[in-house]
Structure formats: C-alpha cells, structure tokens
Specification:
about 40% helix; Cytochrome Bc1 Complex, Chain D, domain 2; mainly alpha
Length: about 100
C-alpha cells in the first residue's frame, strides 16, 4: 500500500500543495512532521480528509489560497485513497 501510495502522491495533485518532498508549501501543510493542521494524523483521519477534502472556510493554514478538494481534486478510487493515506501516514510516523 505504501509504495502504491507513494506512486500516486507524486504525480497526483497531492504534491502540488504539499510539495514533492511532502514538507509543505504556502498552499498546503507539511506532512512529514508530527503537527497536523486539520486532523489528528491517524490513518482513518487521513483517509477521511483525502476523501472529503476541506472547504476554504475551514482551512486552518492562513497562507493556503484555496480549499483542499475531495479526492485531491481527482477521481481517486477508495482503494487509491487508502494507499495514499498509508503513504502519508508513514511520513510522520517513522521511528
């Protein structure tokens, strides 16, 4: 799942806001550290936020210019979302 999620994250819209290294940009937060702007960082929460997105009015990152679109603004399947979530989860839960 993690390798598949990695292969989806980079060519998909994820990296446009979170950066190729997932360390964040002015458009989206860092996914590598242990600080989560919108959620608690659990795997189910990551699945949920990628699935539903976040409306602009609920974005907590002041510099973010727009919403986080549901499914990353693409047509990711539920399985692909679970794979991306597994990859993102590992970024901040490594030890």
């Amino acid at each position: 799942m993690i390798a598949v999620g990695d292969s989806i994250f980079h060519p998909a819209s994820c990296q446009r806001c979170h950066g190729m290294d997932a360390k964040g940009t002015v458009r989206g937060p860092d996914l590598i550290d242990d600080k989560w702007a919108q959620i608690d960082g659990t795997y189910p929460a990551i699945v949920a936020i990628v699935t539903t997105g976040v409306p602009k009015s609920k974005i907590k990152m002041a510099s973010a210019p727009f919403e986080m679109k549901a499914r990353g603004g693409t047509n990711l399947s539920d399985e692909q979302i679970r794979d991306v979530a597994a990859y993102v989860y590992t970024l901040s839960h490594h030890s």
